[in-house]
């Protein structure tokens, strides 16, 4: 019993160290990036005309929106890909095309950001519903849409 407690304490200490390291490196990356780049309000932005500055800031915001959703999208595509690879890849591609349309519309295209926003939102919703359905299929509550996960026999 004592060795189990010591091993749990050691694992806990390792996890705390891992989390501290991750946060410390994130802050270093952010501080370096903020010090070395012009985010639209520095000396390089002063060289732009007002219209170019607005397009630049809109492009950065569209890129930031994409990066905010990227981890969840990749996770859903990969997990869904274990069960329904073609459908997951198709929905991931649809999402990427929607985000591209969104960025084009956000930076000044005549069609606006609506078509891209709707396309990416619907593909995100479909990926979420698909992951719920695949989880239910894995638990035996729904029929499988594709091949079973190899470890579930």
Short structural summary:
It contains 4 helices and no strands. By secondary structure, it is mainly α.
Secondary-structure map:
Blueprint: H1 2-36, H2 50-83, H3 85-106, H4 114-139
Helix content: over 70%
Strand count, sense and closure of the main sheet?
none
Tally the helices: what do you get?
4
The CATH topology of the largest domain corresponds to: Four Helix Bundle (Hemerythrin (Met), subunit A)
CATH architecture level-2 label of the largest domain: Up-down Bundle
Radius of gyration from CA coordinates? 22 Å
Number of domains: 2
CATH class of the largest domain: Mainly Alpha
Given the helix and strand composition, which structural class is it? mainly alpha
User: Given the C-alpha coordinates, what overall shape results?
Assistant: flat
The parts where pLDDT drops under 50 for at least 5 residues are: none
Q: What is the first-to-last residue Cα distance?
A: 35 Å
SSE order: HHHH
Note the main attributes of this structure.
Four Helix Bundle (Hemerythrin (Met), subunit A), 153 residues, flat, 76% helix, 4 helices, mainly alpha
């Amino acid at each position: 019993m004592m060795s189990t407690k010591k091993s749990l304490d050691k694992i806990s200490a390792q996890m705390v160290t891992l989390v501290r390291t991750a946060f410390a490196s994130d802050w270093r990356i952010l501080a370096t990036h903020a010090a070395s780049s012009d985010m639209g309000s520095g000396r390089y932005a002063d060289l732009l005309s007002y219209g170019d500055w607005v397009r630049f800031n809109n492009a950065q915001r569209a890129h930031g929106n994409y990066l905010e959703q990227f981890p969840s999208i990749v996770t859903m595509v990969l997990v869904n890909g274990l069960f329904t690879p073609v459908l997951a890849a198709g929905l991931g591609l649809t999402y990427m095309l929607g985000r591209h349309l969104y960025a084009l519309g956000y930076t000044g295209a005549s069609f606006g950001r609506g078509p891209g926003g709707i396309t990416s939102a619907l593909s995100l919703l479909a990926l979420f519903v698909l992951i719920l359905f695949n989880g239910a299929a894995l638990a035996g509550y729904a029929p499988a849409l594709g091949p079973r996960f190899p470890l579930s026999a």
